[in-house]
Design goal:
The chain has 25 helices and eleven strands. By secondary structure, it is of the alpha+beta class. The strands form two sheets. Strands 2, 4, 5, 8, 9 and 11 form a six-stranded mixed β-sheet that branches. A hairpin with a 3-residue loop joins strand 8 and strand 9. Helix 14 packs across helix 16. It is rod-shaped, with a radius of gyration of 54 Å. The relative contact order is 0.04.
């Protein structure tokens, strides 16, 4: 057994007020399953079913009838749901009744006047309003004095045209002797007269038809007489006099009714203007509404209103509509410029960029706003990278002078290498720093980390914006229907090479800026002015170069996680290889210098075993060297072992042998030393400088170690 449907429920009506026969739209729930299911519709108690047009289960269109109630509910009755209810009401407006001589802003039809006399064979003028016998029966004047009637009916009158007319006075005065049957006939005559009032102006024409015929016959006889006499055009003749009389009568009539007819024309124009304003108030109010919604930031509302106005009035030929719609187009043009300006502003979030692109596509903005945004973002990222260099070169960043080799700065740098930052897309590559970090870290190291932060902070959103541009996800449903998505995909395919060049330019700029700070000799002479300028800065040790390698590797890993093609990241690979080789050579050179200064630090205090601090200091130099070499010698995915390069291997071996020779020479130059100390240090040096020992060091940093 099927479940009964819910009763109809009216939740809205538009408009909510109006005069009789106003067309309204009723909205609600369960308003019927079809036209046949709708069996009842009443508004303010009046049955409107005859004018009802069933549109859907939630919409009915009808006209409001002349209901008795000024305000009432809207009740819908269906076969399936029964008698319904309403949560809204409709207000019926009733026009005021205005007299013939009252001034009014609308035209009032005058009362139809027709002959009330018994002799109906002759028409009368509409100004003859007082009939002699309105009851249509014989008049029997009574003999009651007028003074007695006034005493009996104080303040009243027997004149039926008076405002204080008394029917009893009139009957006593004019029909005192009439029988009851005659009075019934009089009542029937009054009903007939009332019925004739509704016949309109045609009744007046019928009543005076004989007069019109007589007048036509008279005019024809006059015309015939004039033709026979030949006096039709003689000045002063009867025809001329008659024409003058008729012209004066026409002028008099025009003068009498000119004011009334002028008021009627003016009222018609005003009424038509009001109807147009009411019917099309959406269009007339649209420019002001657009301005208000723009100030509030409700761009979606503006776009919806514009689409509606464009569909209704975009191709109109009405001058007033064309003028207002042109103003709407002017406001929309200003909105397009405002949105494009906001789109190209930097910095900006990816969410805002997508939102402004969608707005511009829905407004059918000229050009390709999405590509304009991508181009602007590309230029801004390059400018940020260049500004980062200028910031450090101009000395706005606080740095330190040359590092003290005896201090703890190298150990602090080595300690930071053990902390690996959790790298996220768009995050920072920096590890937590102590409060004194900026005052102890060289500016080149700060610059590389800052530059990497800029690239990793901006490039992911730049890449996501391009992906959204390629797959067409920047546009709304309106854009999909208008073909914006397909157009965007087509443009993206044509501009793939341009975007690839943008990524290449960013990665090349990153590499050149780092080369200018660390490897200026690898840049062409023409690019040193743009990317160099670090000659007066601190010379970096192997420990700081290790930190930089770690930062550049993390930057490369972050870019790889964005699925950027490897061929675009090859320049970073090449930079990493050169940085590793440079770090290896600098570390070995600095270690040589450290070993040279060991003799100056020797205090020749002998411990319990009879050995001075010289061997342990030498060993400490070697340990620091190996720790500094761990990062550059480590082999990440896609990298090669720098020690497998013949030139690097030869240079590294020569430097290590040189370190050992320097240490031996240092021992030989000392004249006051014990034999045991000489033998111990000599044996240690010979052991570290042997080829087998060097091979062991190399194998110690192999990927399988």
């Amino acid at each position: 057994m099927s479940r009964a449907r819910q009763p109809p429920l009216v939740t809205g009506i538009s408009p909510k007020e109006g005069a009789a026969w106003t067309k309204v739209t009723i909205r609600g729930e369960n308003l019927g399953t079809g036209p046949a299911d709708l069996i009842g519709l009443s508004i303010c108690g009046h049955n409107c079913l005859l004018t009802a047009e069933w549109m859907s289960a939630s919409k009915i269109v009808c006209r409001v009838g002349p209901a008795k109630d000024d305000k009432g509910e809207i009740i819908v009755t269906t076969k399936s749901g029964g008698l319904g209810t309403s949560t809204v009401s409709f207000k019926l407006l009733r026009p005021e009744r205005i007299g013939i001589l009252d001034q009014s802003a609308v035209w009032v039809d005058e009362m139809n006047y027709y002959d009330m006399r018994t002799d109906r064979n002759k028409g009368i003028s509409p100004l003859s309003l007082r009939p002699s016998n309105p009851l249509g029966i014989d008049i029997d004047k009574g003999k009651i004095p007028q003074s007695d009637m006034e005493l009996t009916f104080p303040g009243m009158s027997g004149d039926f045209t008076s405002e204080n007319f008394s029917a009893t006075w009139y009957l006593i005065e004019n029909h005192a002797g009439s029988s009851f049957e005659q009075l019934k006939i009089a009542a029937s005559n009054l009903k007939k007269q009332a019925t004739k009032k509704n016949e309109g102006s045609l009744a007046y024409v019928k009543g005076g038809l004989s007069t019109f015929f007589e007048a036509q016959d008279a005019l024809a006889a006059i015309h015939q007489r004039l033709e026979s006499d030949g006096t039709e055009r003689v000045e002063g003749s009867m025809t001329q006099r008659l024409e003058n009389i008729l012209n004066r009568a026409s002028d008099t009539a025009d003068t009498l009714f000119q004011e009334v007819l002028g008021r009627k024309d003016k009222a018609d124009s005003t009424r038509n203007a009001l109807n147009v304003l009411q019917r099309f108030k959406f269009l007339f109010n649209l420019p002001l509404n657009i301005e208000r919604n723009i100030q509030k930031g409700d761009y979606d509302v503006v776009i919806n209103d514009y689409e509606k106005a464009k569909s209704l009035f975009g191709n109109t030929e009405v001058p007033v509509f064309k003028k207002v719609y042109a103003e709407v187009e002017t406001r929309i043009g200003a909105l397009r410029s405002l949105l494009l300006e906001k789109l190209l502003q930097t910095p900006s979030t990816l969410h805002d960029q997508k939102r402004y692109i969608r707005y511009l596509s829905d407004l059918h903005a000229p050009g390709d706003p999405a590509w304009q945004c991508i181009y602007a973002q590309h230029k801004w990222i390059l400018q940020l990278m260049q500004n980062c260099r200028e910031e450090f070169i101009s000395g706005q960043r606080v740095g330190v002078g040359a590092l003290d080799l005896e201090g703890d700065t190298r150990l602090l740098a080595l300690g930071r290498l053990s902390h690996t930052a959790s790298l996220k897309r768009g995050g920072s590559l920096r590890t937590p720093r102590p409060s004194t970090w900026r005052f102890e870290t060289p500016q080149q190291v700060q610059f590389v980390e800052k530059l990497s932060d800029v690239v990793i902070g901006q490039l992911p959103n730049f890449w996501k914006l391009w992906i959204s541009y390629v797959n067409g996800s920047l546009f709304s449903e309106t854009g999909e229907k208008s073909g914006q998505v397909e157009k965007s995909k087509k443009n993206a395919r044509q501009r793939q090479n341009d975007f690839k060049k943008m990524i290449e330019e960013i990665t090349n700029r990153l590499v050149k800026l780092i080369r200018g700070a660390l490897l200026p000799t690898t840049l062409p002479q023409g690019e040193l002015n743009l990317f160099g300028g670090w000659e007066n800065k601190t010379e970096l040790t192997g420990a700081w170069l290790t930190q930089i390698i770690h930062t550049v590797r993390a930057c490369h890993d972050a870019l790889s996680s964005m699925e950027i093609p490897n061929d675009l990241l090859q320049v970073i690979h090449d930079l990493l290889l050169e940085l590793r080789v440079h770090c290896l050579m600098v570390t070995l050179l600095h270690t040589t210098e450290d070993v040279k200064r060991l003799a100056e630090k020797e205090d020749w205090v002998v411990d319990n075993e009879g050995i001075t601090a010289l061997p342990s200091q030498f060993e400490q130099c070697m340990v620091q060297m190996l720790q500094s070499l761990k990062e550059p010698l480590e082999i990440k995915s896609g990298e090669i072992n720098v020690l497998q390069l013949d030139q690097v291997q030869d240079q590294a071996a020569e430097l290590i042998v040189s370190i050992m020779k320097v240490f031996i020479n240092c021992l030989e130059q000392l004249s006051t030393k014990t034999d045991r100390d000489i033998d111990t240090s000599h044996n240690m040096a010979m052991d570290l400088s042997s080829p087998d020992r060097f091979t062991g060091i190399q194998e110690g940093f192999s990927p399988t170690s």
